[in-house]
Amino acid sequence: MGRGGTVHRAYSVVVFVILAALDNVAIGIVPPLYSSIGTDLGVSEGHIALATTAMFLISAVAAIGFAYVGDRTDRKPVLVAGTAIWVLGTAWSGLAGSYPSFLTAQVVAAFGLGGVASVSFAVVSDLISPRRRGLVMSFWGLSQGVGTLAGTLVGGILGHDDWRRPFLVTAAAGVLATCAYLFTYNVPRGESQPELAGVDYDERIHHEDLPVILRRRTNVWLILQGGTAQIAFGSLVWLPILFRARAEDQGYSAGTAVLVGSVFATIFQLGAALSILGGLAGDRLQRRTPRGRALVASVGVLAAVPFYVVLFFVPMEITVTDGAATGTLIREVLVNVVTEPTVAACLAIAVFALMLTSANSPNWFAMIADVNPPQHRGTVYSLGNLVNGVGRAGGNALVGVAFRGLAGAFPPPLNYAVGLAAFQFFFIPTGIMYWLASRTVAADMADTHNALLAVAAESDERPDGDVERDPALGVQGLAGQQDSGAGR
């Protein structure tokens, strides 16, 4: 396996995708098991939900420190440390004998997860050329979505009769992934930038760079949009609870309802796999206008709102064998998708809604890389991730409060449907912020492009400043295409 060769790079990308998926498995396994963990540890579902909320927040805060260190130093040791920490916390969670022990373990896991998310984004962005950022970032983002789905499924399948098993299995997988990561390609900063071809780029972030980052107006909108988007996305971690409540309302036992809820929630979120289409659309439109990625994300999240609202109120008739074995229940749930018209209708609506909102993720990743030099990307991602974490934690916590408040007027599962539908309206300000980003992105891309050209011109490798512009990047004339109202 040559160092930096095609095979080595492909191997590295695969390992990064697996790590990104496993990180989200560690978060996704908890929500389907709120009731089981709470009962065993002698606390309410709300206490276990608090652990998930704390996990979102701590992970987001820790990401800033890890990202800054990663942008200043060798990123590989930082990633190894972060992965080892979340593996330790996840294993500890599965062995916890009390609620304080479980909560502490989740805090430890969250700290490590923050390091992996932010630093790995910076590394992956250095592996991807500007022309294909949307497409490749959609695969990287998809791996995170698949990880969350896998966590929901693993939590329901492995944990419906023993909630500890999913944590221990996920930790073991994390150990294997860490060993595989040790052999990945240590990607140099700026390797994918056409402006820096042949240049030994050794720029590092400094504490005085933060005002520079925030003066890029696009960064501000990209960071802030996550606050409202993730309130809506954070509420969706309760989707298994909605389907569980529907199953219980139809008379199924708690164990069967938990498994049915997890499997249905997993199936209905498969539309997230279509984020690839959002990445492709962003890449294509970006070649025609520098506003392309932002406009695709804006239209996607705004158009999805009515579909989500309808989804939560379409009735579902679930037909499974109560108390059947795990394999039998999964097979029967899958058969329902074909034989029960209400289930098929819900699936079609969910897939379309998730396809639209999933256009957000790859284009967000790509725009961060488009408007920031390599040494700033991890930190900008972590700032966005912090706002994302606050929003997601808020959505996860507030929707639980909303469910309890609505229970007086709407019996389960209707209280869950009303609460989830209301929280999807937080996507509206997200769409507006993406539109605002589309008005500033051209000038910010041009500034970054010119700054990289200046570094290349001053380098020893390019003494004459002979640096070609990448025609696919389309930076020339971007400022001229900027809306006249987009002041800087």
Average pLDDT figure:
82
Rg calculated over all Cα atoms: 23 Å
Helical content stands at over 70%
How many DSSP E strands? 0
Q: Helical segment tally? A: 21
Low-confidence stretches: 461-488
Query: What pattern of helices and strands is seen along the backbone?
Result: HHHHHHHHHHHHHHHHHHHHH
Alpha-beta classification: mainly alpha
Strand content: under 5%
How many angstroms separate the termini?
48 Å
Shape, per Cα inertia axes: globular
- Summarize the main sheet: none
Keywords for this structure?
488 residues; mainly alpha; 73% helix; disordered C terminus
What does this structure look like?
It is a single chain. The chain is mostly helical and 488 residues long. It has 21 helices and no strands. It has helices at residues 6-28, 34-41, 45-72, 75-95, 99-125, 133-159, 165-181, 210-215, 217-235, 239-249, 254-268, 275-286, 292-313, 326-339, 341-357, 360-371, 374-406, 414-423, 427-438, 441-458, 478-481.
Please give a quick description of this structure.
By secondary structure, the chain is mainly α. Helix content is 73%, strand content 0%.
Layout of helices and strands:
Elements (H helix, E strand, L loop, with lengths): L5 H23 L5 H8 L3 H28 L2 H21 L3 H27 L7 H27 L5 H17 L28 H6 L1 H19 L3 H11 L4 H15 L6 H12 L5 H22 L12 H14 L1 H17 L2 H12 L2 H33 L7 H10 L3 H12 L2 H18 L19 H4 L7
